[in-house]
Design brief:
heterodimer, A: 4-stranded mixed β-sheet, 13% strand, globular, B: 352 residues, mainly alpha, MetI-like fold
């Protein structure tokens, strides 16, 4: 019997141990953030919030190629869901259909139109604004005597590229444009972001013509895409080919090259400002902390908008902590929260009442395009899941390599590959 | 042990019935509760139930079955772990492959729909093909190179300890890290010789995966061959020498037949591990590369092998049910190949 009692004691201890891990909760929230570069700013905001309200917010940042939705699914099956987590696309929100809290009664809801509205109502909290346009080095363009505002269509863009190419040595350029089509790690840059210009450039914010066409069995508008493909051909021609960067470069090399003044243009959006002023600050300073700006990807005459959007949203999981989570989001949208997010995190506020402007090189450009009403939304989030990684990204690389010879074949390959992808 | 008192019997029955009730209740909560956090205690409940049940069985007043019950109790932790980590996931996986599971929930059964659509996908057929080619090439090359290295390292050359360690070292680095290191080598160093990186075109990218895989795996297989070669009895070698056998004859007619079992093990190891190749594939090429015309389609994942295809189907294309169906097929292929391999090798060993 002694053995039996011992067994019971051990079992009891085991159960007690399990019970404590389960019930350890209280006033504490968990937020899964998808932008690892703003981890520090978020933690600072969380600390301030805890100081004021006593509610502890744990920030868990994921990035660098982690598939966050997959990670969240694991947590859902296993250790339990975070109270607030990042969702980046229709498919992401679709995963959690019926499990997310409706945020339309929150104070910030009326202060922005960048929130994500799904089938369950307003379910996504917008935390920043990002812009996609053809970023340029204003100082270099000025030296070459090119007025960025004069680039309004394919001919003027080609003329500007030719001028810059002829002055490469003089300006210290490696190539006219920092354009990279590497398909393993940069598929999102080509297959989603660049492709987004075919879908949305020049259109009104709520115009989803080409996105709808794509959603309908993966159709491509031949004429518009051909014009876009001609622009990609131009990029391939004037990119950094000799070093192999065009087909096998990395994101870091791309930003560093632009920040150190080796490229006059770069095909990345406004988010590179943060990298230029932190990781690449030294090279950026050496290149004279030049002014930057953005022009539209004007592959057709008359395209005069850049794309701006909230890159992803924070969704609130329906559980006992929902109200506390909503209160935290309210606080983040208030002046106090915005001050930290904008000034420390470099976020470009999606809230109308926010008066803070980040010290980001691109902040001014985005504000002026927004003020002039020259922005389009982006709709690649409606694309079928994995389209960029498994289909379109590779084609950009093939085009750059020359295994797809010209713009017409690129258009045809894109049309058939996307149609197959939507069919499977 | 033969004190079959009434109180003991009562305690035993209470434990068994209570334990069983707890187990059933916790399982019911798990199935019905939809993972709601309010039922977070169900795990603890299950453990208490199981412990109570086992305790009851231990106390159960029987002489005839006592020994058998004790065996079960002792085996239980292992069986439980095996069930939880292997059997249950396998059954769930097969079950999910017949539904439209999203990784979170499923709404309907689709029968063999996933299995049919999987074979209509040229990309998947391509993945199966290149995986088989990769396996055959690697099985030959890894074993050949590893055996040659082993011969080199048992030849009594100076510093053979150093060589053994050096050849084995790549195996200690994880496949993901290795993949990124070699990606850097191909994209930034070798590019000076090759002009365009090997990793951007499908044929050269596959070659790159083979090279890296051999580099990683040959050292490990070499160690096994070294162990085999050093265990060849000295007297046999001496007898061969006295009979006037030259080095080649000694190798082919004495050493190799003597280590036939090592060949079996090594072929088996390289076969299954090449089949399951995932990490180097993921980190080195990520499955990229294009095939201009395969079954009339333009493929955009030319270097995507079977395991990576399964992973991408589930994670990147967000189609967990189809991924599960592919995984079931993967399991069947792997099980068949392994069984055949073992059978053939065993038959051969008997002959020798």
């Amino acid at each position: 019997m002694k053995k039996g009692i011992l067994t019971l004691l051990v079992a009891g201890a085991l159960v007690a141990g399990l019970a404590t891990t389960v019930s350890a909760d209280g006033e504490s929230l968990r937020l899964v953030n998808g932008k690892i570069e703003v981890d520090a700013a978020l933690k600072e905001a969380a600390a301030k919030y805890e100081e004021e309200t006593g509610v502890h917010v744990e920030i868990e940042s994921m990035g660098g190629g982690v598939n966050i939705q997959d990670e969240l699914k694991k947590q859902y099956q296993g250790t339990g869901m975070p109270d607030i987590f990042v969702c980046g696309s229709d498919a992401d929100f679709g995963n959690w259909d019926g499990l997310l809290a409706d945020l339309s009664d929150c104070a910030w809801a009326a202060d922005t139109d960048a929130g994500y509205v799904g089938t369950d109502g307003l379910v996504g909290f917008p935390y920043t604004t990002e812009a996609i346009g053809l970023a340029y080095n204003a100082d270099l363009l000025e030296k070459a005597g090119i007025d960025p505002a004069s680039i309004t269509g394919p001919e003027s863009m080609r003329a500007a590229f030719e001028t810059l190419d002829s002055m490469k040595d003089e300006l210290g350029l490696t190539a006219v444009i920092g354009w990279c089509t590497e398909s393993q790690n940069l598929y999102w840059s080509t297959g989603s972001h660049s492709f987004a210009n075919y879908l949305d450039a020049g259109l009104a914010r709520d115009d989803t013509t080409y996105s709808d066409l794509l959603a309908d069995g993966g159709q491509i508008d031949h004429d518009r895409f051909l014009a876009y493909a001609e622009m990609i051909a131009l990029f391939n021609e004037y990119a950094d080919k000799d070093s192999g960067f065009l087909t096998s470069g990395t994101y870091d090399q791309q930003i560093l090259g632009f920040a150190s003044g080796k490229y006059a243009f770069v095909t990345q959006g406004s988010w590179i400002g943060a990298t230029m002023t932190t990781d690449d600050a030294e090279q950026y300073a050496e290149a004279g902390n030049f002014k930057v700006g953005m022009i539209p990807y004007a592959f057709e005459e008359g395209i005069d908008t850049i794309l701006t959007n909230s890159p992803s949203w924070w969704a609130v999981f329906q559980n006992d902590n929902t109200d506390a989570a909503k209160a935290f989001l309210d606080w983040l949208a208030s002046d106090e929260g915005q001050e930290i997010l904008v000034m420390k995190g470099g976020f470009i506020s999606p809230f109308k009442s926010c008066s803070f402007v980040a010290e980001d090189p691109f902040a001014e450009t985005i504000s002026s395009y927004t003020a002039a009403g020259k922005t389009s939304a982006w709709h690649w989030l409606k694309n079928k899941a994995g389209l960029d990684q498994n289909a379109t990204g590779q084609l950009y690389q093939d085009f750059a390599l020359g295994s797809i010879p010209d713009a017409e074949s690129f258009t045809q390959a894109m049309t058939s590959v996307i149609a197959d992808y939507y069919a499977s | 042990m033969n004190a079959n008192t009434a109180s003991r019997k009562l305690l035993s029955l209470i434990c068994i019935i209570g334990g069983a009730a707890l187990i059933i209740a916790s399982l019911v909560l798990d199935v019905m509760g939809d993972g709601a956090p309010a039922y977070g205690f169900r795990g603890a409940m299950l453990v208490v139930g199981i412990v109570a049940l086992l305790f009851g069985l231990y106390l159960f007043p029987t002489l005839k079955y006592h020994r058998r019950l004790i065996y079960i109790i002792f085996l239980f932790p292992l069986l439980f772990t095996f069930a939880v980590t292997v059997i249950i996931p396998l059954c769930l996986g097969i079950f999910y492959s017949f539904t439209d599971w999203t990784g979170i929930q499923y709404t309907q059964f689709v029968g063999f729909g996933n299995y049919i659509s999987m074979f209509q996908d040229p990309q998947f057929i391509w993945s199966i093909l290149i995986t088989f080619v990769f396996v055959v090439i690697n099985m030959i090359l890894v074993n050949l190179i590893a055996f040659l290295l082993a011969l080199l390292c048992t030849n009594g050359i100076k510093g053979d300890g150093f060589f053994r360690a050096a050849y084995f070292l790549p195996n200690l680095i994880g496949g993901i890290v290795l993949g990124y290191i070699w990606q850097f080598v191909f994209n930034n160093v070798l590019i000076n010789l090759t002009k365009t990186s090997w990793l951007v075109q499908t044929p050269t990218a596959m070659t790159a995966i083979v090279v890296v895989y051999i580099w990683q795996y040959a050292g490990y297989i070499m160690l096994l061959y070294i162990t085999g070669l050093t265990q060849v009895p000295k007297d046999v070698l001496e007898a061969a020498q006295i009979d006037g056998a030259n080095a080649r004859q000694t190798l082919f007619q004495v050493k190799i037949p003597m280590i036939a079992s090592t060949f079996t093990i090594c072929t088996f190891l390289t076969l299954t591990s090449a089949f399951k190749q995932f990490d180097v594939n993921l980190a080195l090429t990520g499955g990229t590369g294009s095939v201009a015309n395969f079954m009339g389609k333009y493929l955009t994942s030319g270097t995507q092998m079977l395991a990576l295809n399964i992973y991408n189907t589930a994670v990147s294309k967000n189609n967990y049910a189809l991924g599960q169906a592919k995984a079931v097929l993967f399991f069947i292929i792997l099980a068949c190949v392994s069984l055949i391999q073992v059978r053939i090798s065993n038959a051969k060993e008997v002959e020798l």
